[in-house]
Amino acid sequence: MAKSSKKSKEEEEIVDSGDDAWWWLVHKGITPSFFCIALFSLLVRVAVSLHPYSGAATPPKFGDFEAQRHWMEITLNLPLNEWYRNTTRNDLSYWGLDYPPLTAYQSYVHGLFIRFFSPESVALFTSRGHESYLGKLLMRWTVLSSDALVFFPAVFYFIVVYYSGRNQRGRMGGIAWHIAIILLNPCLILIDHGHFQYNCISLGLTLGAIAAILSDKDLLACVLYSLALNHKQMSAYFAPAFFSHLLGKCIRRRYPIFEVFKLGLVVSGTFLVVWWPYIHSVEAFFEVLSRLAPFERGIYEDYVANFWCTTSVLVKWKRLFPTHQLKVLSLGATVSTFLPSMIQQIWAPSKKGFLYGLLNSAFSFYLFSFQVHEKSILLPLLPASLLASEEPFLFTWMTIYALFSMFPLLHRDKLILPYLALSALFILLSLAPNRRQETRETNAFRSIVTTFFPFCSLILHVVYLSMNAPQRYPFLFEALIMLLCFSQFTFLTMYTNAQQWMLLKHSNLVEKEKKLL
Amino acid sequence: MESQSTQKLKNPPKPHNPISELWWFFAAATCVKLLLIPAYRSTDFEVHRHWLAITHSLPLSQWYLDETSPWTLDYPPFFAYFERFLSIFANLIDPQMVHLQNGLNYSSDTVVYFQRVSVCVSDLCLLYGVYRLTRNLDPVRRKLIWVLVVWSPMLVVVDHLHFQYNGFLLGVLLISLSYLEEGRDLMGGLVFAVLLCFKHLFAVAAPVYFVYLLRHYCWKGLVRGFGRLLILGTLVVAVFAVAYGPFVYHGQIKQVIHRMFPFGRGLCHAYWAPNFWVFYILLDKVIAFLLGRLGFKIQAPAASFTGGLVGDSSPFAVLPQITPAITFIMVLLALSPCLIKAWRDPRPMMITRWVAYAYTCGFLFGWHVHEKASLHFVIPLAIVAVQNLDTARHYFFLSIVSCYSLFPLLFESQEYPIKVLLLLLHSMLMWLGFSAQFTKDKTLEMAPSGKNKDSHLGLNRSVTAAQKGGFDIGWVVWSYLVGLLLVEIWGQFLHPIFLGAELPFLPLMLISVYCSVGVMYSFLWQLKHILVS
């Protein structure tokens, strides 16, 4: 009887879901739907990769594409100990390696692949600024394969873990939507497959670590997160959240010191393995380390929608303070802004709180840390996309402005067409049929957010594309975009910090109820 | 429990607004199409650009005479008018695009964007056709058809990569079919006549239309029938008069016809479309080889199948030469069972199948058939595919085979992942869609029958039946599709490794031969189902 009632319930859902627009796509369970959505996401990525990359045909320095290609050239042709050293064969002022060793190893492996098909595009010296049909194609394929091999499985792992134990059948449509929204994140696709970078690897490793934490595999999480850190030092944006959540968890266990020691051992073990070639001498170690922290580049560059850059319109930070003071200042600001979310996680570690913590700490780094790129918005965007099923509105809002904050960069890269197409695709996804079950209260605040700000950004888009800035203020439009995005980001992070602390209140209530019962 | 589930059954699902959902599907597809703008484009791109220039820069009397470029205008007048219409906007955007001499091989960003976007916009016609055809279906079937047609990988490959306006033209065909299915024969006939004046290759289905309209629309007693025939005839003649009238006036009708039917082009296209003639050519080669081994003297043919411009010499070594007239008769012969069926029992619900069958015949036995012509039957068959499990199985198979047969169109490595992903995604969507559809159908069928019997027993049975009744394509089709994969692996990877640059035509020939087996099977399947129905 129990069996049959379960089956009839299933059947009921089958019949019931006749109205669900996406039932046909998801009725086979998570794996086939994930596979299907992944194929589509790959198709979109391949299509974006047809477009120009950063610095295409702009000698002498070209852009990020040339940087990555140059790293392959260096790692492929020089011995390991010369990779981070300025020598006659390795001119560090020309796109010298400034990412941790894992990136160097990845460049080496990709270099091997490219050398097999097109040796001239990674030849030492002669390949500087190499641009060819085959060269571009092979480089693009290295990003595509990294994405498919690292980021996609990580998303799958996350989805399986995140939705395990919940009632899947009724929510399959929502799960499929969540998969699509993570995989089709327009910012990530544009930067990796348009502009040209390998964020998919470090973000994929981070996502793997997050999923591991959600499934209580803390050691695995430590390994994966250490690898992410060793691929891109920017992954440190998430460090406070990982640290506080794991610490909070450990001190609740029976032998807190032992638990912390175990995690520390795993982290240092992973670091040891990755840094093995560089830890034989102190000199070599610091050589690499100094490459990773480019403090000489100043507190901000270009127009990034963060605190320093936006306020520099009024306060000329660079003139007021010397660099070393700015370093302290930005460090203080960053730490003080991520501290609340850290405290919350140490105090009451929870899975949802962890995701909010990731978002908050990444945001505080983006807004207040030293030397932030506009591309760094990808980091807070990742945890935001993981929270998309809880906070769909927040995520849509954030993605749109994250995308907008990169608009000048993408315009320089001649990626306007994919920018528009992917924005449209993203908006379509967020409006997908049967996604309107969320409460649609129309208060004054929401209507301002959903009409006034998008209207502003639309106007700015049109103005940016059609008009030249006045001669006196050549970067007027960039500054306006920055201002708009900064205001949105500040508001968002205040909201998400509040949300994280609200969790505490909520869990207290639940506990009290339990006690009462 | 039981009463609850039956209650659920009785409550009809809330109706959605189908149009907004269809727009969603279309917009999502358009985003991908826009992303593909910088991809490879064939010479057809320059052909269409040149037609913009011809129709814009020259008076109508010169359109079919101009020989500025080898890409002369060879579509019927409505298509020329369509190009004239587009050229108005082209001229506003960049006059060099429509300049007869300066525009030759013009390939700036503006012209690429303009032409690519014009294809995306003209797909609105397809959207309307699909909407008309599916507006009265149930939501699941409707959505499935949208996925099959609006997200068709073949249309993406041919229209948005290779470059043509098939989506637009097939949209007109679907509109015509939707009128016929509704029983509005006059409108259906009229739209079909318009379609013929856009692209004459669609004329293969004209016999089916003729028989069907004669029987279903005109066969209503002597006086009334004759009156109806007169109305229909007048309308069709009027459409043709609008199209060809100006050229008749200039006394160029012969020239127009000559341009539209270049029979000098040979039996097969450069890459053999997977049709019947592939077997014929192959058989000729095999016999010639065997006879040669047996000591007979076989003269190597001087002409090629694709050129066919070399006087009277036959491209075949042993078998008799094929002339356009023979192919014409073959097509009519293959069509005849369907025509007889249409005459005996003209049912509106069958017309889409018959038209698709007609295009299949044209594809298999026609003269100088392009591989792209498989779109003409694959797209209409999508409408039929959702009807039952058999048609769905057949469509699943046919659509994969025809899409694969388009692979040689995109031969550059940059597009390789695109075409593979398109095909995989399409197969995956079809599999999920069809299995959802037929699992659901089964459940709905079985649930009421379980009601009368012992409650949980019946429900149990219905669920297991639903699970069994999923989408299963059978081992023959499976092994054929695995073979397809092997053909691809051979052509892409093993051939270059083992044979290098030798026998460069072999991979293409393998694809042709292998796919033509599939298309032949589809032809026989369709024939059987038309005869049985």
From TrEMBL, chain A:
Keywords: Endoplasmic reticulum, Glycosyltransferase, Membrane, Transferase, Transmembrane, Transmembrane helix. It is an enzyme of class 2 (transferase). The keyword Coiled coil does not apply. GO terms for cellular component: endoplasmic reticulum membrane. It comes from the Eukaryota. GO terms for molecular function: dolichyl pyrophosphate Man9GlcNAc2 alpha-1,3-glucosyltransferase activity. It is found in: Endoplasmic reticulum membrane. Pathway: Protein modification; protein glycosylation. It holds the Pfam family Alg6_Alg8. InterPro entries: Glyco_trans_ALG6/ALG8. Its main location: endoplasmic reticulum. It is a multi-pass membrane protein. Its EC number is 2.4.1.-. The chain crosses the membrane at residues 21-44, 138-163, 175-191, 260-279, 329-347, 353-372, 393-410, 416-432, 444-467, 473-495. Belongs to the ALG6/ALG8 glucosyltransferase family. PANTHER family: DOLICHYL GLYCOSYLTRANSFERASE, DOLICHYL PYROPHOSPHATE MAN9GLCNAC2 ALPHA-1,3-GLUCOSYLTRANSFERASE. This is Alpha-1,3-glucosyltransferase. It comes from Rosa chinensis.
From TrEMBL, chain B:
Keywords: Endoplasmic reticulum, Glycosyltransferase, Membrane, Transferase, Transmembrane, Transmembrane helix. It is found in: Endoplasmic reticulum membrane. It is a multi-pass membrane protein. InterPro entries: Glyco_trans_ALG6/ALG8 (IPR004856). The chain crosses the membrane at residues 21-40, 113-131, 143-158, 192-214, 226-249, 270-296, 316-339, 394-411, 418-438, 473-491, 503-524. Signal peptide: none annotated. One of its GO terms (biological process) is protein N-linked glycosylation. Its main location: endoplasmic reticulum. It holds the Pfam family Alg6_Alg8. Its EC number is 2.4.1.-. Pathway: Protein modification; protein glycosylation. Coiled coil: none annotated. Belongs to the ALG6/ALG8 glucosyltransferase family. This is Alpha-1,3-glucosyltransferase. It comes from Rosa chinensis.
